[in-house]
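Problem: given the chain below (268 residues), write out its structure.
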Amino acid sequence: MKNLNPLFWWHKFLQLPNERLSKTLLVAFMLAVVCAVIVSVTAVTLRPLQESNRDLRRQERMQEMIASLPGIADLLQGNQDGALEIRIVDINNAKFSTDIDPQNYDQRAAAANPDLSTALSPDMDIAGLGRRANYAPVYMLSQNDELALLILPVHGTGYQSTLYGYLALQSNLVTIAGLTFYEQGETPGLGNRIEEADWEALWPGKEIADENGEILIEVVRGQASTPYQVDGISGATRTGNGVTNLLRFWLGENGFGPFLLNLKTGVI
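Solution.
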């Protein structure tokens, strides 16, 4: 039948005056649907490439940080595996876990899975995470069977984005060897300067805690005046506060704090 043919109705629609409100609304609707499909297909198609680029960026930033640390490059060359050892930490139990393959573990995906993460109450969640994965990878470099460098993945809310980075600790697990961020969306020319080499160079040698174990590391406004402080970036106070909060979270009791204590005292 003629009136059941879609082409019949399409031609009839095209013959409507362009001033007709119904035609305008339908064209707008169809255009919105087409655009939505294109955006969705593009997002799905490009997701693997985006994830690959993110992983490459993460690896590059870690390598750059390690290369800037005095003597670490030589240790890596002397390491029989020629690379850092990756191990999974059970954050809730403050010990290493052998149940998860570190090569295939995705901490970010785990944090979004209620079965693999812990919901944080507002008073605990100083880094603005919402949920914290129960397991996290750490990167270790040893020399003569002794820990020489420990690298912890850290992340938290900045001013305009979530900041993702790595904190490297010296063998005493108190002195910072380096800090680098590989992913952030802070204000260009202000907060995004946390990725600049000059600012990263301020971190080595800083202490994360005092002799009583209290976490004191912080980014301050203006000039640092103690071993626990790092100069803030002018005009980026909120980003600096975000860095302070995420470091204090991950080094504290709800992050790697208990694990670091166990590692330092030889419990694990």
